[in-house]
Design a protein that fits this description.
By secondary structure, the protein is α+β, with helices and mostly antiparallel strands. It folds into 2 domains: about 10-85, no CATH class; about 95-220. Helix content is about 50%, strand content about 20%. It has 9 helices and 6 strands, in the order ββββββααααααααα. It has helices at about 95, 100-115, 120-140, 145-150, 155-160, 160-165, 170-175, 180-185, 190-225; strands at about 10-15, 20-25, 35-45, 50-55, 65-70, 80-85. A 4-stranded antiparallel sheet has the order 3-4-5-6, with no helix packed on it. The chain has a two-stranded antiparallel sheet with strand order 1-2. Helix 3 (about 120-140) runs parallel beside helix 9 (about 190-225) and helix 7 (about 170-175) packs across helix 8. The radius of gyration is 21 Å and the shape is globular. The structure holds zinc ion. Zinc ion binds near residues 29, 31, 57, 59 and 60.
Length: about 230
């Protein structure tokens, strides 16, 4: 549904003949970047060996830290500990269309996943999708706000997003209908989580288009009387 290069991911980054795990997007401005290293710090005691890279975003010019775990038993993407500050959305145009409630939950879900709390992240994404789907349905059907608020995610999708439903696989509906069962039974937890994240991205784009169409329609309405 969405190109991988647009997704927030942990990625390998080589500096001074050493491999680090960093984010492919700037935590400040959310753009895909190849950051530059400003400095490197090692923190070590008898149990832990942590390296902090001070990185600079070539786009927004702001700095941030990425922490990596350099214990010998930790490999690959597991090396990533955290970024400071956390990943944020303050300049993402698509997310700006949504309510603060959605933004808070979505951002907490993303940062939970980055910290490795994938179970909390999964349920956070499902609830984020629900809030987003209901916000869009309310924009399109303001007269049905009460029905929308009290419906569950699936019936809201079926009732108010029927034109979008064909885009989603049966699998997504299964995940959403049985999120608790799926959570316990499925072996492909990662795919389920990615499916929900793709749907959130899809609806963020859809909301952007919808609001643009609204403003074009409103403009042509207000322009008519002056002619
Ligand atoms: Zn930036």
């Amino acid at each position: 549904m969405q190109n991988n290069e647009n997704k927030l991911m942990k990625t390998q980054y080589e500096y001074d003949n050493q491999e680090y795990i960093v984010l492919n997007k700037c935590p400040h401005c959310n753009l895909d970047i190849h950051p530059t290293v400003k400095s490197r710090f090692n923190l070590e005691n008898s149990n832990y060996n942590v390296t902090a890279l001070s990185l600079s975003c070539p786009s927004c010019k702001r700095d941030y830290f990425i922490f990596n775990d350099f214990r010998s038993e930790v490999a690959g993407f597991e090396k990533f500990i955290m970024s400071f500050p956390n990943y944020g959305f303050s300049e993402n145009a698509l997310v700006k269309n949504t309510s603060k409630k959605f933004q808070n939950l979505y951002m907490q879900s993303i940062n939970s996943e980055l910290l490795g709390h994938i179970d909390i992240a999964f349920f956070g994404y499902v609830k984020s999708l629900e809030i987003l789907v209901k916000e869009i349905a309310t924009v399109q059907h303001p007269e049905s706000e009460d029905v929308i608020l009290f419906s569950n995610l699936i019936s809201c999708l079926e009732q108010f997003h029927a034109t979008n439903m064909h885009l989603f696989s049966k699998k997504l509906l299964e995940v959403l209908k049985n999120d608790y069962l799926f959570y316990h039974k499925t072996e492909d937890f990662h795919t389920c989580s990615e499916l929900i994240k793709d749907s959130i991205n899809y609806f963020l784009l859809y909301l952007e288009l919808l609001l643009k169409t609204f403003s074009i329609n409103n403009q042509s309405k207000t322009e008519k009387p002056s002619k």
